[in-house]
Design a protein that fits this description.
There is one protein chain. Helix content is about 35%, strand content about 35%. The chain contains four helices and ten strands, in the order αβββββααββββαβ. The strands form two sheets. Strands 3-4-5-9-8-7-6 form a seven-stranded antiparallel sheet, with helices on one face. Strands 1-2-10 form a three-stranded antiparallel sheet. The longest helix is centred in the first third of the chain and has 42 residues.
């Protein structure tokens, strides 16, 4: 039994990385395209608008089990049709152009909680996922929108009982248009054949205190049902 368990753990480490990366390449290309469109649209907007003082709206996706809040003057946008690779579940846009994009991508094999927690190389696997996501989404997006430079401000694994969860925060220096932030929480729920990407895009404007606070509150409100929001961890 011990030998069998060791064999399964070893196979888990190598096959799961492949099971995550290979099926996600097309999905990440779609996500990359969405970020490009969002950043270009954002850079065209210059007039900030005060966010509302009313209580925020709670958006809950009962099918995939996540939730977040956004101000009442942020508006839900039309989403494209889903396909076999995945789908855009929700897009929310603020008056000044900040955007929330939540996408679901399909993966070939689920990651089982017991196998992941028993694997001594599980953290290495997640670190490889973070590297892959930065290269295939954030860096590619930065190049495609003509940014002169991209900086990874933060990257970390987030504690979660729901699945593998990690956070990436990037800044993009777009020529003649200013600095844009693209920040995301990426989650692969245990025992499921999908991943959830919650991404926000917004301008860096130190003078827009109210809008910046609204952006931060929306981001920190993201959570899976049954877990605390990011701000409470």
């Amino acid at each position: 039994m011990i030998g069998g368990k060791r064999r399964k753990i070893t196979e888990f480490h190598s096959s799961t990385i492949g099971g995550f990366i290979e099926p996600c390449k097309q999905y990440l290309r779609i996500l990359d395209h969405l970020l490009i469109v969002s950043i270009i649209a954002l850079c065209a907007l210059v007039s900030p608008v005060d966010s509302s003082e009313l209580p925020p709206i709670e958006y809950t996706d009962n099918e995939y089990g996540y939730a977040f809040q956004f101000p009442v003057n942020w508006k839900l946008q039309k989403t494209p049709q889903p396909n076999e690779i995945g789908e855009v579940r929700v897009v929310v846009k603020s008056p000044r152009g900040d955007q929330v994009i939540v996408t679901i991508g399909m993966i070939e094999k689920p990651i089982y909680k017991r196998a992941f927690q028993s694997n001594p190389k599980s953290l290495e696997m997640v670190d490889a996922m973070i590297d892959f996501t930065i290269e295939q989404v954030y860096k590619k997006t930065s190049r495609d929108v003509g940014a002169t430079r991209m900086m990874v401000a933060d990257r970390r694994i987030l504690p979660s009982e729901v699945g593998i969860m990690f956070y990436i925060n990037t800044a993009h220096f777009v020529r003649d248009k200013g600095l844009v932030i693209a920040t995301g929480i990426h989650t692969i729920p245990f025992d499921k054949k999908h991943l959830v990407s919650f991404i926000m895009i917004g301008p860096v404007d130190p003078s827009a205190k109210r809008e910046n606070e609204a952006f931060q509150k929306v981001f920190q409100s993201f959570h899976f049902v049954g877990e605390k929001p990011i701000s409470g961890r």
